[in-house]
Design brief:
With 506 residues, the protein is an alpha/beta fold. The chain has helices at residues 21-37, 56-64, 101-107, 112-126, 141-149, 161-172, 199-206, 215-230, 244-254, 277-295, 315-328, 357-363, 376-381, 394-403, 416-426, 446-457, 461-480, 492-505; strands at 11-16, 39-40, 43-44, 48-54, 73-76, 131-136, 152-157, 186-188, 196-198, 234-236, 258-260, 302-306, 332-336, 367-371, 385-390, 407-409, 430-432. Residues 15-152 form the Glycosyltransferase N-terminal domain.
Length: 506
């Protein structure tokens, strides 16, 4: 192992993600990165403990994703969901209907007493100066808890810097739109006068026009305010190379030190083996079918389509998307989920796609329709994948950038609309085909899908420029998290992680 080089003594980081897959996964990837930084160049750089805190079902899933021999530990907190009328197994938004999201968010504060007891016990045993909480932005009360116990706190943003800055500004100080407003009407943000948002984007972030009395918005405002008031810094899953403008905006809005430690990339979790052998078999068959299809296609020719693990579009738009894919003539892999009008656990029905669609594209070896889980990281890493039609969730955005794949953006809610803007307007690696659940989203129909796919996968100057920029960003984001063979030459995100640990433990 070499000689230990003490950089400020022992430290214990308590990672506390929000209860959703899109948050649990980045926190797990952060824990793995922290563990890997403990040893560089054959020497132990820090005596650092990392513990992920969550509810029992989430901890069980995270444990399965930790490699053998890892020193990452876990702490379980009981979650009395029934107090908020939630089902007893509801420990993640993955199993919560959209209309129950507010109740679920409010219920997370039920974790506070047991979290504070855990925090107090650790502080007493290891010393307050040796403990730091790294909690999710949506668990702002944890910043109050850390201050009460007398330990350090940092807030982790699992979304991008630009989208976070714009979204938080809208939540805290909503711009005043005239009524009635047209979807295309624009207003500047109070905090950033040079950033303008369309009314359609505003509603997708605010959720309802009645923002003065909306309890969900009040909760989100309180969480952001508590973090800005009590935390010692913002840790963000991005890099200086990806988001210089976004990092400037979030520093200005929060007034806090920022640590851009991303991209934090890791594998996606396949179907839960605890759900039975059928789940395992379906996951294996999906992966085999996708990779076999990609192996049969030319380089950079296939479009991958996915709206993430929790998002989906209405049945009418699903039909238009299918027609557009078929009309494009480009090969594709589409991970489909039931339409937005239906329960996500329902069996997929053929009637949700155009008559004969699956049979036609399969017979022509033109497309693969995967029902449910698809091996996203493996697909994006494959040389035959040329573009990603995505909901622009931040984890998916980072995976696209990591693999140098341009994006056809179809953002649906919240920060996704501003991630899509970042890809198209700031980075030049995206083109937006539709936006939002408000005002119908797709608008122009299947022709627009066909044209957007051609814009990215075709041979125009714009398509070639997008591919060139995506390749350059791939190089930059990988360099940001790189460490040289001597352990001393480090990328910008590695240096940011070192600054974070120095700020927390000295």
């Amino acid at each position: 192992m070499g000689h230990e080089q003490d950089r400020g003594g022992a430290g214990h980081l308590l990672l506390f993600p929000f209860l959703a897959q899109g948050h649990l996964i980045p926190f797990l990837n952060l824990a793995k990165r922290l563990e890997s930084l403990g040893h560089r160049g054959g020497t132990c750089q820090r005596r650092l403990e990392v513990t992920i805190v969550s509810t029992p079902r989430n901890v069980a899933g995270l444990r399965r994703a930790v490699p053998a021999g890892s020193c990452i530990s876990f702490a379980e907190l009981p979650f009395p969901q029934l107090d908020h009328g939630l089902p007893p197994d509801a420990e993640s938004t993955d199993v919560i209907p959209l209309h129950d999201f507010p109740a679920f968010y409010f219920a997370t504060e039920l974790l506070r007493p047991s979290f504070e007891a855990l925090l107090a016990e650790l502080a007493a045993r290891q010393g307050r100066e040796n403990v730091c909480v790294l909690a999710d932005i949506f668990l702002g009360w944890a910043a109050e808890s850390a201050r009460a116990v007398g330990v350090q706190h940092r807030v982790f943003l699992t979304s991008g810097a630009y989208a976070s800055a714009v979204t938080f500004s809208i939540w805290l100080r909503p711009p005043a739109f005239p009524r009635p407003a047209d979807p295309a009407d624009e207003q500047p943000l109070h905090d950033f006068p040079d950033v303008r948002v369309r009314y359609a984007e505003f509603l997708n972030v605010i959720v309802t026009e009645d923002h003065a009395t909306n309890p969900m918005l009040a909760y989100l405002r309180r969480m952001v305010t508590l973090n800005f008031r009590h935390s010692g810094g913002l840790v963000i899953n991005t890099s200086e190379e990806i988001e210089p403008k976004g990092l400037h905006l979030i520093r200005k809005l929060s007034g806090l030190p920022t640590f851009a430690v991303g991209p934090l990339i890791g594998g996606r979790t396949p179907p839960d083996p605890d759900d039975g052998t059928a789940a395992r078999r379906d996951g294996d068959e999906s992966e085999d079918a996708c990779i076999k299809f990609l192996d049969s296609k030319p380089a950079a020719s296939v479009l991958y389509v996915s709206f993430g693990s929790q998002n989906t579009i209405p049945a009418a738009q699903m039909t238009e998307l299918a027609r557009g894919l078929e009309a494009s003539g480009r090969p594709f892999i589409w991970a489909v989920r039931p339409p937005a009008e239906f329960d996500g656990d329902e069996e997929f029905r053929a009637e949700w796609l155009p008559a004969g669609f699956e049979a036609r594209v399969a017979a022509a070896a033109r497309g693969v329709v995967v029902r449910g889980w698809a091996p996203q990281v493996g697909i994006l890493a494959h040389a035959s994948t040329g573009a990603f039609l995505s909901h622009c969730g931040w984890n998916s955005v980072l995976e696209s950038l990591w693999h140098g794949v341009p994006v056809v953006g179809w953002p649906l809610v919240a920060d996704q609309v501003f991630d899509s803007r970042l890809l198209e307007e700031e980075l030049g690696v995206g083109v937006e085909v539709a936006s939002g659940r408000v005002f119908g989203g797709l608008g122009k129909g299947w022709e627009h899908v066909r044209d957007a796919v051609e814009t990215v996968l075709g041979d125009s100057d714009k398509a070639r420029d997008m591919r060139r920029k995506a390749t350059e960003l791939k190089r930059l984001v990988r360099a940001a998290v790189s460490v040289g063979p001597d352990g001393e030459v480090m990328g910008s995100s590695v240096l940011a992680m070192e600054r974070l640990l120095d700020s927390a433990f000295g």
